[in-house]
Structures are given as structure tokens and as C-alpha cells.
Write a structure and sequence with these properties.
Rossmann fold; binds zinc ion; single chain; four-stranded parallel β-sheet; alpha/beta
Length: 240
């Protein structure tokens, strides 16, 4: 009955690709047109064992990247589903700046169908989305990291806490900054309301894009200082 109903709805309102607005053939799982679907570059090995940076060579073992050899990472591993280019680079800004339900569903599906290949989502006690500052949340109306974390929560039924970790400083958008400035920009930008709630916990921190890792590293630093056992990071995309 449901299938019949959705076939009738598709006839009246032909499905449209939420990214390029192409009408017609849409893959049923992620509701994207074949071209947008094909333009998602999933991240696979070999990659950096810590930050998940994919290496250009198609073969070889995972190993540390230059940045992870020299910089302190407070998270244990960070993994991203796809490279921030093509479809994901078009879709994430669309998703971030206005609420778009079909696109949100699509991106959520891409995240959860691929995350188990990257890490074991059942190995955590708690999900925490990277928070937005109050003023940005007011401006935008929603936190894109929380929406992605909810998709993971729905799939694996992990407790989600989006109130404890707070962004107390409205930092400049990281996109306009160089790597060194990014680190300084987020230093001291986060705090925990109740440290005891993260003590001895294994936490999966969720965000939309990993760029230099400065933001998630600072969140992880705050969590580790409060006695968190382990922090891993899951993002939808990663800049390379
Ligand atoms: Zn499309
Ligand atoms: Zn690395």
C-alpha cells in the first residue's frame, strides 16, 4: 500500500534531485540523480591513522600524515565519509544555511550508510555535536552538526547530548583563516556545563566538515581535560 502510494505521489510530483534540481531518474536510496550520486568521492584507505586524511596513492598501508606527526591531537581518530568536493561541496553549504528537508535526509543517509566502514559506531557512550554559538544559532535557526548527530542517534540509538558542550565565544568563520590562525581563533571557545557527565565516557564528536581539524581538536581538548576516556570525530566531509 505504501509503495503504491509513493508511486502515485511520484507521478503527481516527480522526484527532483535536491542538489541540481534534475527531475526524473533518482536513486531510491539517497534520492540523488545519477550524476550527483557519482560525484561523491568516498574516502578509502590508505589514509592517516589519526586524522583520516586520504593519501593520493591508491595502495599501501594507512600511516600518519605530516601534520599528525608534529601536532598534538586530542582526539584518537577522525574519520570523514567523503572528500569535500563535487556533490558534497555543493550540498553542505545548501544544507548549512537553510533548512532543506530532502537534502538533510539525503546527507544524513550518506553519513549513516557509510560511517560503519570508517569506525565502529557502537563503541561509544555518547554523541556530541560540535556546538554553534548562541548568536549564530539564532541567525541560522539550527545547528547542522546536531542534525547529522541526530541521524546517527536514530540509527544506532546512542545517547545524544547537545547541551553540555557549549561554544562560549562567537569565533570568526574558520573558512576565512589560515591554519595557524584557525587554532588561535577557537582556543578557549568551548566549555562544558557539567564536566562529570563526560568523565570516563567514550565520545563520538560529530560535525559537517573537517578542514584543518582545529575546531574538533579544541572540543576534544576540553573533553579530555574533563576526564573523557576517548574522543573520536565523525564528519560528513573532509577538505583535502
Ligand atoms: Zn543532481
Ligand atoms: Zn593526519
Amino acid at each position: 500500500m505504501n509503495q503504491l502510494l509513493s508511486a502515485i505521489i511520484d507521478l503527481i510530483f516527480p522526484p527532483c534531485c535536491p542538489i541540481c534540481k534534475h527531475l526524473g531518474e533518482i536513486s531510491s536510496s539517497q534520492r540523488l540523480c545519477p550524476q550527483c550520486q557519482g560525484d561523491i568521492k568516498l574516502i578509502i584507505s590508505p589514509l592517516c591513522t589519526i586524522c583520516g586524511l586520504p593519501f593520493t596513492a591508491n595502495e599501501g598501508e594507512d600511516h600518519l600524515c605530516g601534520n599528525c606527526l608534529t601536532e598534538k591531537r586530542y582526539f584518537t581518530v577522525a574519520r570523514a565519509v567523503g572528500v569535500y568536493q563535487g556533490t558534497l561541496q555543493k550540498a553542505i553549504p545548501m544544507f548549512k544555511y537553510r533548512m532543506n528537508t530532502p537534502l538533510t535526509k539525503t546527507l544524513g543517509d550518506i553519513l549513516i550508510t557509510n560511517c560503519e566502514k570508517l569506525l565502529n559506531p557502537y563503541a561509544y557512550d555518547l554523541l556530541i555535536p560540535v556546538p554553534l554559538h548562541r548568536s549564530r544559532l539564532r541567525e541560522r535557526g539550527f545547528n547542522q552538526a546536531l542534525i547529522l548527530a541526530r541521524e546517527v542517534e536514530n540509527k544506532i540509538h546512542l545517547p545524544l547530548d547537545y547541551l553540555n558542550l557549549q561554544r562560549i565565544r562567537d569565533t570568526q568563520p574558520q573558512t576565512s583563516l589560515k591554519e595557524k590562525e584557525r587554532k588561535k581563533n577557537v582556543r578557549g571557545a568551548f566549555r562544558l556545563r557539567e564536566e562529570r557527565k563526560v568523565k570516563d565516557k567514550r565520545i563520538l564528536l560529530v560535525d559537517d566538515v573537517y578542514t584543518t581539524g582545529a575546531t574538533v581538536n579544541e572540543c576534544s581538548r576540553v573533553l579530555k581535560r574533563a576526564g573523557t576516556k576517548r574522543v573520536d570525530v565523525l564528519t560528513l566531509a573532509r577538505a583535502v
